[in-house]
Amino acid sequence: MDAKTTSCPCGYTEITARPGGTRQARPSTNSGRKYADCCGRYLDDGETAPTAEVLMRSRYTAYALGREEYLLATWSQDTRPASLGLESKQHGKWLRLEVKLHEQSAPDHAMVEFVARYKVDGRAHRLHEISRFVREGGQWFYVDGDIIRS
């Protein structure tokens, strides 16, 4: 992957506030930020994600790129599995991430609701989850999540 020219898998575009408190993505001529300027900062350069939403986006990108070491490193030690086995699993193609809601209920606790779309063997799938995050020592970690069935 050419980190300087490839769009980031998380698809992030800048958000601008509009009157009445609604949010709208700023129009973009491409599909979002370049990987090096977006999630590459966290996956490759070791920067700490400043919010739970940014961590969620970087974790989606890690899944899309098969970066198990990053996923485990950003998972709370209280709930982290020993392995995800990504190298031995058949991978689908991650298509799109939509963050529906990000709420920080306390300085060190947050939740992110998202929908991730992907394909396995040509069949489309949708993962809708409400994820919980905790900040420890100034760093956000994924704790766990509830899958929303629709």
From TrEMBL:
InterPro entries attached to this UniProt entry: NTF2-like_dom_sf, YchJ-like_M
Signal peptide span: none
Protein origin, superkingdom: Bacteria
Domain YchJ-like middle NTF2-like residue range list: 51-145
Designated name of the protein: SEC-C motif-containing protein
